[in-house]
Design goal:
The chain has a single domain (38-163), classed as Beta Barrel (Lipocalin), CATH 2.40.128. It starts with a helix and ends in a 10-residue tail after the last strand. It has 3 helices and 9 strands, in the order H-H-H-E-E-E-E-E-E-E-E-E. The protein is elongated. By secondary structure, it is of the alpha+beta class. Strand 3 (71-80) and strand 4 (83-94) form a beta hairpin.
Length: 168
Amino acid sequence: MIKRLMGTGILVLALFAVGGCGVPVTPVELLGPPAQENDAADLTFLALLPEGARLLHPVRYGDVDGDGMNEAVIVYEENVHSKKAMKAALVKKQQEAWKIVWATNGFGYGLDYAGIHDTNGDGQPEILLGWSFGAGGNGLDIYEWTNQQWMLKDTRPYDGPLGSPLAL
């Protein structure tokens, strides 16, 4: 009988050790933003940015100039004179190296959406940046390639998360 109890006790201890039981996570720890691991592409883009800058949003890829090669839209935050500034940039691969070919300042408290889509049906994709203004709602900036440069073509307010930019 004692052998059976000892065997059961050892089995229970082994199950707890292998089962990964530990201290449960608190609700506060669950509410934090997910940690983003930098992949090789992120590290490549971070090298193009000023020291201390960090990527705020996943990199979005798309062929914006029709050359058959994907460009990348990156959104980042940098410290300028002890203040944080949000920026977005278009990065293009030129001679096997990525280079920033266009950049703009961000607005509001954060980025809600970034993407590359043809929103007006002309066959040329636009760059879409959805900025969050807090209680003031959100604003979508639509940039279009005009006269050999990216120009802000339209700004539209929207509420809530931007599901599909093609529904605009």
